[in-house]
Amino acid sequence: MNKLLTTLFALFVACATSMGQAQTAPAAAPATAAAPAPAAAAAPAKTATPASPKSIEAKVAMCVGCHGIVGYKASFPEVYRVPKIAGQGAKYIAAALNAYKTGDRKHPTMRGIAESLSEQDISDIANYYENLGKQGRATLGDKPNREADAQVAGLVQKAACFSCHGANLSKPIDPSYPKISGQYPDYVFVALKAYKTENNPTFGRNNGVMGAIAKQFSNADLKALANYVGSLDSELQTVQESRFHHQ
Ligand code: HEC
Ligand code: HEC
After folding, report:
1. Over the stretch 140-162, which tens digit does the pLDDT of each residue have?
2. Most buried pick, 45, 101, 105, 230, via CB within 10 A?
3. Rounded to an integer, what distance in angstroms lies between the CA atom of residue 118 and that of residue 134?
4. What is residue 58's predicted lDDT score, i.e. its pLDDT?
5. What domains appear along the chain, each with residue ranges and CATH number?
6. Is the pLDDT of residue 8 over 50?
7. CB-CB contact of 184 with 80 (8 Å)
8. Whose CA is nearest to atom 8 of ligand 2?
């Protein structure tokens, strides 16, 4: 079965689920979700139209078909696990979604999805994912739980990864920067290559900071960096879809 078809089907199911939830959404906010934004709280419970669902469940229904399935893989431009976003900083999640929206990030599916989100949606969704799974989450120590071997330690030092992503790679110096410790290594590798890529209409990320950094390295170096980063303990999670439904 063609991977693209699988992806499109997952999207379709997610959209269908989203519609269904909009019509049947219960009036009560879920106990564990991030505090609802004032606008959402003020909206009358029964009048939301299917075209503009307001509950947070409806807003993220489209996301769980990919980000809510442990091990779910994307296949473009190569096969890699879709990133963990639960536990990521809200400001970074919002920045990433806005980068897909403006086209600075070129991933076609995520662009289409981000374009469909309002500013309010992005803010609600970002807060929701920052807090999702928070109760069971490990708090990391100040230093990475594993030391890099000499080769990778040299690469990390060359680009001073810790100076921005934090001494444990999970405490970024600015909330719009990502936690990267323990992110899926295959995704980290694709993301790092994307920062190096220019003039490709469907693959790449336009980012002054990470572009300059990624361009200093060969793909073999980026892979070694990604494998190290991905081998570390994480505050990031993929929260399984079934848990989402039970919460
Ligand atoms: C069809 C699968 C799919 C769906 C549905 C989907 N995503 Fe994604 N998402 C991806 C893939 C693949 C990437 C990695 C894209 C890239 O390489 O830039 C991604 C990347 C992201 C990122 C960037 C993560 C990072 O660490 O930089 C965020 C944030 C995100 N998605 C949020 C969402 C939200 C919110 C929704 C629902 C509104 C959603 N996604 C729906 C597949 C999906
Ligand atoms: C000067 C600050 C700075 C330094 C140094 C830095 N980064 Fe980043 N990094 C950022 C910022 C800012 C972003 C977010 C860019 C964006 O919005 O796409 C980022 C994004 C990333 C991402 C994408 C995360 C995701 O979820 O998609 C990875 C992976 C990453 N950096 C790895 C590294 C590694 C590895 C190093 C060292 C080799 C490094 N960074 C050094 C600032 C920095």
Report:
1. 999 999 999 999 999 999 999 99
2. 105
3. 25
4. 92
5. 3-137+237-246 (1.10.760.10), 150-231 (1.10.760.10)
6. no
7. yes
8. 210
209 has pLDDT over 90: yes
Q: Does residue 203 contact residue 197 with C-beta atoms inside 8 Å? A: yes
Residue matched to tokens 């990604």: 226
Q: pTM of the entire structure?
A: 0.84
Ligand nearest to the CA of 63: 1
Q: Which of 64, 80, 93, 110 to mutate to test the pocket of ligand 1 (most atoms within 8 A of CB)?
A: 110
Index of the ligand 1 atom closest to the CA of residue 113: 38
DSSP 7-18: HHHHHHHHHHHH
Q: What is the DSSP letter of 136?
A: G
Residue 7 in contact with ligand 1 by CB distance below 6 A: yes
Closest ligand 1 atom to Cα of 117? 38
Is the Cβ–Cβ distance between 30 and 247 less than 8 Å? yes
Chain position carrying tokens 């680009």: 159
